[in-house]
Specification:
- This protein is of the alpha/beta class.
- It has nine helices and nine strands.
- It has a seven-stranded mixed beta sheet with strand order 5-6-4-3-7-8-9. A two-stranded antiparallel sheet has the order 1-2.
- Helix 1 packs across helix 4 and helix 2 packs across helix 3.
- The structure holds nicotinamide-adenine-dinucleotide (NAD).
- The site of nicotinamide-adenine-dinucleotide (NAD) has 23 residues, from helix 5 and strand 4.
Length: 210
């Protein structure tokens, strides 16, 4: 499969991680092939949606055979850039930053934590998940040497924009922003916002109208 991401719509890309997760579980369970009907049943999506989505990048199922799970899993992984390790850093070594650092699940999906940064003298020099917390001002040199691609931002809200701007200058290409504010980044840099409170508010709305 070519890395022709440009041709794949944002909507399809949004759905790829879920396909990747299901296919990974199917692969683990020892299955080698699956029909679009069966995949659709498990994922609760229509078979035509599955066929449309997977055809976008040439993941054609064979008539009467279905999809080869491993091939499809690898193809989607390649499109998502997970065919090699994605080096990641955490900025903000507080409650959330430490919890994320200690979570082993990211590494099993190819995201390797290679550095943690903070500005507080109480945090700098401490060890979290086998990583020494480094002063934020060292990020530039660190990036030159190690070229991390992604940063998770877990600083207080007020520091988020400044931190993202600096880290983008250092060469970070994507941010997972956990602070409750929308950070703006230069062109060519991507942000995914994890506004947990937004989801809580939606849940609050839904549960009061049940
Ligand atoms: P925290 O106070 O425990 O940690 C924040 C850390 O950021 C501290 O170690 C602090 O020294 C560091 N910091 C401050 N300014 C910095 C800067 N300019 N550069 C680098 N590091 C800096 O807070 P927390 O509970 O971990 O929350 C962090 C962010 O995540 C907040 O914006 C919060 O709203 C958001 N958040 C937290 C949770 C949670 O469960 N803790 C949930 C959702 C969202």
């Amino acid at each position: 499969v070519e890395k022709s991401n440009k041709k794949i719509s944002g909507e399809v890309i949004k759905r790829l991680p879920r396909y990747y997760r299901y296919l990974g579980d199917l692969k683990k369970s020892g299955l080698t092939k699956i029909s679009s009907t069966e995949l659709s049943r498990r994922m609760n999506v229509t078979p035509s949606q599955i066929r449309q989505d997977l055809n976008c990048f040439g993941g054609f199922g064979q008539q009467g055979y279905g999809y080869n799970i491993e091939n499809l899993y690898n193809s989607i992984g390649k499109i998502l850039g997970l065919d090699s390790t994605v080096d990641t850093v955490i900025i903000g070594a507080g409650n959330l930053g430490s919890a994320l650092a200690n979570y082993k699940g990211f590494e099993s999906r190819g995201f390797k934590l290679i550095g943690i940064f903070d500005t507080s003298s109480e945090k700098i020099g401490t060890i979290i998940a086998d990583c020494e917390v480094l002063p934020l001002q060292d990020l530039e040199d660190f990036c030159k040497k190690n070229m991390p691609k992604i940063a998770m931002i877990t600083v207080p809200k007020g520091a988020a924009s400044e931190v993202a701007e600096y880290a983008a200058k250092c060469g970070i290409k994507g941010f997972l922003n956990f602070t409750y504010t929308d950070v703006t980044v230069p062109e060519g840099v991507a942000v995914e916002n994890m506004h947990i409170s937004d989801h809580l508010m939606m849940l609050s709305y839904k549960t009061q109208n049940m």
